[in-house]
Amino acid sequence: MRTRDTDKEKLVIEKAIELIVADGIQAFSMNKLAKACNISVATLYIYYKDKDDLIIKIGREVGDSFFKRAVIDFSSEMSFKDGLWRQWQNRAAYAMEYPTEVKLFEAMKHTPYGESIMRSEGHLYFKEQLENFTKNAIRNNELIELPLDVFWSVAYGPLYTMLNFHREGKALGGRPFTLTQDKIKTAFEMVLKALTP
Amino acid sequence: MDTISDHLLIFKTDIDSFCTNCQVHKALNDHPSIWEWSIDTQDEDCVLRVVSPSLTPKMVISLVNACGHKCAEL
Predict the structure, then answer these.
(1) pLDDT, tens digit, 9 for 90 and up, residues B27-42
(2) Which of A75, A109, A153, A187 has the smallest set of CB atoms within 10 Å of its CB?
(3) Is the minimum CB–CB distance between A111 and chain B shorter than 8 Å?
(4) How far is C-alpha A138 from the geometric centre of its chain's CA atoms?
(5) Domain with CATH 1.10.357.10 in chain A
(6) DSSP letter at A176?
(7) Which CATH class is domain B4-73?
(8) What does the alpha-carbon distance between residue A161 and residue A60 come to, in Å, rounded to a whole number?
(9) Is there a contact between A45 and B47 if contact means CB atoms under 8 Å apart?
């Protein structure tokens, strides 16, 4: 009988994320993962059918943790200012706490596996909440109606740019950069000005 | 509780590609005692994973060998 071990499963997920982030999806293999975890390849196949199955399951799991976190203390009924601020806070907190998972999103985004993140359980609820939130904001005249991609770029672009600077520890021209609440607040106020009628 | 991992058999093979017309695909698919199977053709060990309530590793190895492929328990 082949038994599953929850601790080992956690280790496998952790190491798989590290390897994918370090070497990319193409170079990632079950053999490398087994070596990194100090387990036999056969053990990996207790948990996963193949490399695809493993990457898809990990994508879903990481996606789920992000989408669940993004809706904490958030409701589609919030005013546009409060709701968007909550989104900024939740997304920034996630990126600060889970930098490796964010890098995994980046590594997976433009591959066929990217879809797996969107198929995570938490995504559906997240999507529905965010869609209702923007609809309410437009209806309440708190938000200018814009094509989705334009809205997203303006609403979250500045935050993600600063989070990237923070992750790399440097901003334009290689100057040292640390993200602070003050910087987040200043950028948020500018975004609010741009999106409010 | 009986779970899939209780009936899981894992092998190293030389099956680096297969199709629905391949002998090995047919043999595994048509076997009444095989609930589920998959081959990771991307892996260097071309790992075959078989879920069966009754087959022994030896029986699976014979089945794969009979289709002209190498097979060893991992």
Answers:
(1) 999 999 999 999 998 8
(2) A109
(3) no
(4) 26
(5) 57-195
(6) B
(7) alpha beta
(8) 25
(9) yes
CA end-to-end span of chain B: 25
Tell me, what's the pLDDT at A119? 75
SS3 for A24-74 is CCCCCCHHHHHHHHCCCHHHHHHHCCCHHHHHHHHHHHHHHHHHHHHCCCC
> Best residue in B47, B54, B60 to probe A by mutation, most A CBs within 10 Å?
B47
User: Residue B2 has what pLDDT?
Assistant: 61
pTM for this model (two decimals): 0.79
* pLDDT value of residue A133: 97
Residue pair A122/A68 in contact by the 8 Å Cβ criterion = yes
Alpha-carbon gap, residue A58 to A53, rounded angstroms: 9
Q: Name the fold adopted by A57-195.
A: Tetracycline Repressor; domain 2 (1.10.357)
Which residues of chain A neighbour B39 with C-beta distances below 8 Å? 50
